[in-house]
Amino acid sequence: MSEGRYNIPKQYKVDKGMPLDALFQKIDNLKCRRVFEAEIESVEWSYHLVDKDGVKDMKELVREQGLSVFEVNLRRKISPDLLTDVFAGVLQRPIVMVYLCEGELSMGTYISVGRTSRMCSTDFYPYDADRMIEVLDFDTDYDKTTQQIHKRIYATLCQQKRMIMIEKAFERLSKENERESFAYEFSLENLERIRADADFVQSQLRVV
Questions:
Q1: Which residues neighbour 64 within 8 Å (Cβ) at sequence distance 6 or greater?
Q2: What is the DSSP string of 151-172?
Q3: Which of 136, 150, 182, 206 has the least C-beta neighbours within 10 A?
Q4: What is the value of pTM for the model shown?
Q5: Distance (Å, rounded) from C-alpha 162 to C-alpha 139?
Q6: Is residue 144 over pLDDT 50?
Q7: Longest distance between any two alpha carbons in the chain, whole Å
């Protein structure tokens, strides 16, 4: 993973590839396991945010409780909700998941609130590989604990999910309106010309 790909300080970097066979063996549903085996190319533990200062190395870092960021590269798209739900059970830790596929990106998180758990994943949207993947909001997160940051990320993803759903629904509506407009234009403005052409062809046939 290249430096600066995420807007997360370097001291939290793990950059560790995860063994897929071991991960997938933890998936109870056989159909789901086969889908993951076929469609997931790699899983990387990218960062681990912790509240402790002065962590010396990566081994010490990952032993601390915190918020882990994982990057998943997909061969083909899988439902982000399914991905997040399964990885939450497999990884069993506070997580932020980043899914990359065919130039698009989706993010998901799974958070425990008291005795309940909540999950949120955005739909896939176009991803500019030259820009950083923004996980942190430095203006908001600079003095917060990892638990507070996790709650803020969850709320942000919920808002992004809603906005992406609205944009895609509006885009679909716009395309449908364009098709209806074209059909209307074709049926009214061109109808007389089509009738005239048909009458001409029929008259020529009668002559023959």
A1: 48, 50, 51, 52, 55
A2: HHHHHHHHHHHHHHHHHHHHHH
A3: 206
A4: 0.80
A5: 23
A6: yes
A7: 97
